[in-house]
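queue> pop job 88
queue> type: inverse folding (structure -> sequence)
queue> payload:
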């Protein structure tokens, strides 16, 4: 009977060394503002937000805007390969160009994802999704 607990303990100890330690979580935050600004007669919208990531980290941002325009979707997205990381909040404006129809003043759904990496093995992700009002 004693062989089973010893076997189980051996198996658990072996598995603990087989799996690498997980990466350390790094603080990251993204906050979309309530209004976006219409640009170039609807060809794009400028999405203001505030981002925060750990000092010395590198951060990138992905933003998508979707709006129902008379029963069809106006959709655009934008990747920003670099955002400021100082441990404090920074205002960042991302201009999103529509890939389909023109954006119009009114309500749109917006998503933002902030990915952060701090060498040697720390990372973090922050996301926010919200309705945003597009204004002229």
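queue> result:
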């Amino acid at each position: 009977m004693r062989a089973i607990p010893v076997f189980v303990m051996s198996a658990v100890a072996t598995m603990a060394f087989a799996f690498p330690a997980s990466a350390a979580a790094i603080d990251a935050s993204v906050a979309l503002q309530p209004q976006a600004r219409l640009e170039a007669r609807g060809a794009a919208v400028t999405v203001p937000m505030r981002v925060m990531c750990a000092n010395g980290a590198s951060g990138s941002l992905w933003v998508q805007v979707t709006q129902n325009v008379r029963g069809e979707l106006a959709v655009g997205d934008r990747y920003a390969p670099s955002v400021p990381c100082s441990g404090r909040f920074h205002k960042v404006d991302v201009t999103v160009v529509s890939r389909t129809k023109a954006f119009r003043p009114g309500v749109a759904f917006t998503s933002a994802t902030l990915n952060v990496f701090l060498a040697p093995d720390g990372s973090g992700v922050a996301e926010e999704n919200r309705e945003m009002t597009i204004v002229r």
